[in-house]
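Example (one chain per record):
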Amino acid sequence: MRTSSTIRTRVTVKRTTRAAAALAAGALALSLTACGDDDKGDDSGDKGGGTKQPGVSVTLPKLDGESLSVAAVWTGTEQKNFKQVLTEFEKRTGAKVTFVPAQDPIINFLGSKIAGGAPPDVAMLPQPGAIKQAVDKGWAKPLGAEATKELGENYSQGWQGIGKVGGKQYGVYYKAANKSLIWYNARVFENAGAAEPKTWDELLNTAQMVYDSGVTPFSVGGADGWTLTDWFENVYLSQAGPEKYDQLAQHKIKWTDPSVKEALTTLAEIWGKKDFVAGGASGALQTEFPASVTQAFTGGDQPKAGMVYEGDFAQVNIGETKAKVGTDAKVFPFPAVGDTAPVVSGGDAAVILKDSKAAQALATWLASPDAAAIQAKLGGFLSPNKSIDSSVYPNEVQKKIADALIAAGDDFRFDMSDQAPQAFGGTPGKGEWKTLQDFLKNPKDVAGAQAKLEADAAAAYGG
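Predicted structure:
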């Protein structure tokens, strides 16, 4: 999952019924309130005895002397926080776990490791398409009985289903993220006399007010092409609707469809507006996601930009500045472009590559509320685990986001690019990522962008 640091949270979930969208959007519209929580871990402690202890929800085996490795593209604070989850697993089982930093696309990284005879035991895969590829290549191993049981107790059928291939359970969606949020510098909005917009037209008006006050409206992390696909998906889902979304996701309609033209034309109202994007297109294309967040919250009331679009995980990057979530940094739901505001989530799945008692135990652990609670307390993290107590989240907005995610149940859809073959939807410098970067550079060329998207999609999908 593109998450904080390099943000690899790409399982973008689209809740499409109006009831679910209204529920989540309503929860997210609440004002952010900072709720400090300095707890850095979960001290409940089965040290690997194979039986549950008071306050411990999951049974893990003794693994003294065992060692295993976990690969993920997470870096920075996100990697640091995940390592605390692994440390607790070590305490409870006696196993030794090594974190292996991976590169994007992770499937290619894993392929090189496997070819070299040194695959990690478990990999965190950010696309359902990547899970299918790992299964098709014979790399992924099905979850065992204990991991499957833990998953069944703690996850909705929908979240279980997206980790299945051919009816077998391969993935544990450990991490999720709400990606229908726009964060803003509260002082900039106050100086501009701007209010939180609820529709796309209101967002454009708000952006103009921010611009007129002397601050560039938007920060865009265009160096990471996945952020641009997220922009497109929010606009497209809200504007074209879920049925068209499903058709485009499966390439049952072409990218030259008029609905795609409409969405790209809408995006160009921001991307193509002179001085609406910090650094212009060239600056945005050199800005990675973490910097796109921090530059909106450094510089007091004169930052490089007043707003930045992306998920709840942006809180981790905001935390690297002096801005305080709930006072200096606030958030509103991605505005409705069509009849209904989009609600988007994402996630990363743990997939076993080397079937062993230790690897199965780690998958079981990651499916437990105990594991999720540790990282939830640290912030910048959202779990689809319905058994976690949302009070563990470190601030009110994170809690509301988590409650809305769980309340949505099985009513969701995945990120379009994550359902696509990775060559089209998940590879830097290629396919959708590259074409949308080119479109950011030249938002007037809607037809050219559509033609390139369709050509690349047709090649990736096989016609």
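Caption: Residues 181-333 form a domain with the D-Maltodextrin-Binding Protein; domain 2 fold (CATH 3.40.190.10).
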